[in-house]
Amino acid sequence: MFEKFTEPARRVIFFARFEASQYGSPGIETEHLLLGLIREDKLLLRRFLSDPNAIEKIREQINGQVEVRPKTSTSVDLPLSEECVHILGYAVEEGEIIGTGHLLLGILREEHCFAAKILKGWGVHIVVVRGEVSKATDAEAGWLHHHTLHNQEAIPTTPLPMAGAVPDAETAKRIAEAVWAPRSTDGPLSNVVAENATLTSGVWIVTGAHNSDGHHMSLAAFIQKEDGKILRLHQETLDS
Q1: Residue 157 pLDDT exceeds 80
Q2: Which among 121, 158, 130, 131 is positioned nearest to 233, based on CA atoms?
Q3: Matching CATH topology for 2-146 and 152-238?
Q4: 3-class secondary structure for 73-140?
Q5: What's the predicted TM-score (pTM) here?
Q6: Quick one: residue 24, left, alpha or beta (phi over 0 = left, psi -120 to 50 = alpha)?
Q7: Phi and psi dihedrals of 23, rounded to 5?
Q8: Is 200 helix (H, G, I), strand (E, B) or coil?
Q9: pLDDT score of 139 more than 70
Q10: Domain 2-146 is of which CATH architecture?
Q11: Crossing angle, helix 100-109 and helix 82-94, to 10 degrees?
Q12: 152-238: what CATH class?
């Protein structure tokens, strides 16, 4: 199934896995998928949300209704819930190549799930979303993915461990920091910090931040465990 997913859509799944681990959930639920979508593609959701603060309020809404348990180890492979499996199936039905918009449609089609109820409560309607998503003729064209391109950099030459592989989370973090630093700041390297590293399907997902002069930038790196290859870099300047 996942060979039909664009890289942004796959990152939504990775981020959903990360969110589930942060909540200590035994599996990936629809609210984690929604949070993964927010992490990857805020601008997509903001297109359909009239309240400019809705993104932050959605997380608060989830926090208020979901039990937070001790964090799950990143070495544990969390399964998708039945509702999430349905959502991915619906997304596949919505297009030949699956982007973030198709995942949003999948969530809305699983209408009784927690994430769909949240979105409907904020006035997100499937007819409107489908109309906008259908304007994109393929996964690389149209507004659906164009707005993400300025945040994605060319894959750099990366310092790799001696063994060629990335054996643990600390190694993945150090690699990410080495790649982020020259691209995020001209100041001290200590301003760039890798905070979390999660291994999912052979890929280390490293998230971190760069803080400087009152500005906060969220960073992500996707590093292949087998050979240390940098699959993707992502950065996003957050509102202060």
Answers
A1: no
A2: 158
A3: no
A4: CCCCCCCECHHHHHHHHHHHHHCCCECHHHHHHHHHHCCCCHHHHHHHHCCCCHHHHHHHHCCCCCCC
A5: 0.59
A6: left
A7: -85, -5
A8: strand
A9: no
A10: Orthogonal Bundle (1.10)
A11: 120
A12: alpha beta
Listed by start position, the domains of the chain span: 2-146, 152-238
What kind and span of H or E run contains 184? helix 169-184
Q: Which residue do the tokens 């009784």 mark? A: 112
The per-residue pLDDT for 239 is 52
Residues 6+ apart with CB under 8 A from 238: 216, 217, 218
Average pLDDT over residues 184-188: 47
Best CA proximity match to 38, nearest among 20, 55, 63: 55
What residue type is assigned to position 57 of the chain?
K
User: Looking at this protein, which amino acid is placed at residue 63?
Assistant: N
Q: What is the pLDDT of residues 26-70, one digit of tens each?
A: 999 999 999 999 999 999 999 899 898 999 999 999 999 998 899
